[in-house]
Amino acid sequence: MKKEDSIQENISLDHNDLCFCPLSGILDVVAKKWALLIIAILGNEGEKGFNELKRELRTISPRPLSETLKNLERIGLVRKRILDTSPPSVYYSLTPDGWVFREYLIPMLQWVSKKGKKDLPGCPIRAGKRTHK
Fold first, then answer.
1. Which of 59, 50, 52, 46 shows the shortest CA–CA distance to 98?
2. Engineering a disulfide at 129: which of 22, 44, 75, 82 sits with its beta carbon 3.0 to 4.6 angstroms away?
3. What domains are defined for the chain?
4. Helices (H), 1-91
């Protein structure tokens, strides 16, 4: 069975009764510039510290990274872990819902790629480097 088939099984076949209202809250977060890239990095490479994420995203400044992480945490896609060190170390990872969300993103990315959008030279973020355990 293909991955697309397993995802399709979880989607109701009766689309007429599907309410789109719940989308507004989650789209406000994941449609932001950095959210999907953060989900991709955490899904590919596992738990990351704030500065590690900042380095991988290259051009993001601390404020939008912090705001995006807070919003992803608020909607339940990212977990924040604080270590009792001096200064405190903060790490982020995907929650179980974050992993499920990421699995739905991969077919969308494949569809977009087929529609003619090409990889950027030196693309630093790719799907599938790591699997959830």
1. 46
2. 44
3. 22-114 (1.10.10.10)
4. 3-9, 23-30, 35-45, 50-57, 62-74
